[in-house]
Design brief:
The chain is an alpha+beta fold. 34% of the residues lie in helices and 17% in strands. The protein has helices spanning 7-24, 47-53, 56-67, 121-130, 134-137, and strands at 42-46, 72-76, 82-84, 97-100, 107-110, 115-119. The protein has a six-stranded antiparallel β-sheet with strand order 1-6-5-4-2-3. The chain starts with 6 loop residues before the first helix and ends in a 12-residue tail after the last helix. Mean pLDDT is 90; it is low at 1-6.
Length: 149
């Protein structure tokens, strides 16, 4: 994982970041479940529960395989953004980090509070199919989605 220093890629990353905020509401800092979300295609997990139920390596492999075809934009809170293809090593316990496919249809967000949020029906459905244990690791605290009561 290394930051991109090419002008074209920087422009592409800046445009993607603006569009990510518009489409998903992510503002480069806190996001769901630490902040309210306006979308209902989100699913947040608790990293403590994930570690107990799902080996981190399997989660990393899932992320790599899901995004293998196209790569991802990587947006850390305090460092320079970069493009990574294929995405490698995205397990648990990152802090205010977001990755998204190049069309911004799916998103993964890691919080400093030990959560991982998946966004986009295709990503969520693939995760549920791959890991039937997902119900045991859902984050039970923080903000709820608008469609939850």
């Amino acid at each position: 994982m290394s930051p991109i220093d090419h002008g074209h890629d920087k422009d592409k990353l800046q445009s993607a970041l603006k569009e990510l905020k518009r489409l998903w509401g992510w503002n480069s800092h806190y996001w769901f479940p630490l902040e309210p979300a306006s979308r209902n295609d989100l699913l947040a997990f608790d990293c403590n529960l994930m570690e107990a139920e799902l080996p981190e390596e399997e989660f990393q492999d899932f992320i790599t395989e899901f995004y293998q075809a196209g790569g991802v934009y990587v947006f850390p809170e305090h460092d320079e953004a970069w493009i990574e293809s294929p995405p490698m090593g995205f397990g648990y316990w990152h802090s205010e980090l977001c990755i998204t496919d190049f069309k911004l249809r799916t998103i993964v967000y890691w919080s400093h509070e030990g959560t991982v949020t998946l966004g986009g029906k295709r990503l969520i459905n693939a995760f549920k199919k791959t890991f039937p244990v997902y119900e045991k690791i859902v984050c039970s605290w923080g903000y709820q989605r608008l469609d939850q009561s």
